[in-house]
Amino acid sequence: MKFVDEAIIKIKSGNGGDGVISFRREKNAPKGGPDGGDGGNGGSILFQADKNLNTLVDYTFKKIIKAENGKPGQNRKKSGKKGTDKILLVPIGTKIINCYNNEIIKEFKYDKELFLAIQGGWHGIGNNRFKSPTNRTPRKRSLGKLGEEKTIKLELSLLADIGILGLPNVGKSTFIRSVSSAKPKIGNYFFTTLIPNLGVLFTKKKKKIIIADIPGIIKGASKGIGLGLKFLKHLEKCKILLHIIDLSIERYQDIIKNINIINNEIKQHNYKLYKKKRWIVFNKSDLLKKENIKFKINKIIKKKNIKKYYIISSIKKKGIKNLCKDLSNSI
Fold first, then answer.
1. Which structural domains are found in the chain, ordered by start?
2. pLDDT tens-digit profile of 152-206?
3. Measured between alpha carbons, how far is 76 from 66 in angstroms, rounded to an integer?
4. What is the pLDDT of residue 187?
């Protein structure tokens, strides 16, 4: 299924049904009184979170969504049928945003969470409701109220415990494959990962940790170069970020430059995200000799003042167990 994390739609609730003017006319009651019934209320638009969804793709096909109108009243004091409500399913983590002022109207955090977005129009009243001692044959009714109409933006932020970031080709997708059952695409070229991937890490303590992998960030991403930073929002709710770094690059100075690229791009985009707890993970250690690893690590951590880091090989699954254990203890 195609991954879509933003959609703009127009929603319209149903109009209320009109009340009617009617008089009872039967053989045994030729001068029967008013019996016009009320209309039915218009259907409302509601949103409900569904844990089985992870994309807003359904809202790319239908840009205008309407609830059913209420039916008019009938004779014999019968009310019109209420318009059917429209319940729209969205993934957990979806925000409903007012398009005109960017106000967040609602953010869904739990499965089955229900939210009334717009109310259906109120029903009209039939002439039966207007009779009185001084007016026994009212020829008056009221019309149903029009439904509401709004243009809204749906924005999805995937809910993950751990977020993975780094330059393209540092082994982010390989890492998520090595610790979970997720099967993201892997290849030796830029932007193998084009959309966020989710994986689930099951720990020995029977804890379920959700990991999010986003497309690689390159220099100038904050200005829209490459895939930009549009997917960084999926890391905003993460408790820990794993900054994965390719240790196999020949010069340690270039590795430091790559670390700085990620730091600078995130800092320019979202300072709050930049300050989030981040663990450094040096990957592709299987491509180096032990003495070379030690030399590079010492130079890098000293230069960048790195306190917490891990040395792993996602391909060989070296160092993965210790990293996952610490993640489990920290979430």
1. 1-156 (2.70.210.12), 162-330 (3.40.50.300)
2. 999 888 777 888 888 888 888 888 888 876 554 444 444 444 566 777 777 766 6
3. 30
4. 46
Total H helices, total E strands in the chain: 5, 14
Report the alpha-carbon distance of residue 56 to residue 62 in Å, rounded: 11
Give the pairing type, strands 240-246 and 309-311.
Answer: unpaired
Contact of 231 with 215, CB cutoff 8 Å: yes
Name the CA dihedral angle for 126, 127, 132, 134, rounded to a multiple of 10 degrees: 160
Give the global pTM: 0.70
Strands 114-118, 45-50: pairing kind: antiparallel
Which of 169, 168, 165, 171 lies closest to 226 in space, CA to CA?
Answer: 168
Cβ(159)–Cβ(92) below 8 Å: yes
**CA–CA separation, 105 and 92 (whole Å):** 15
Tens of pLDDT, residue by residue over 280-299, are 999 999 999 999 999 999 99
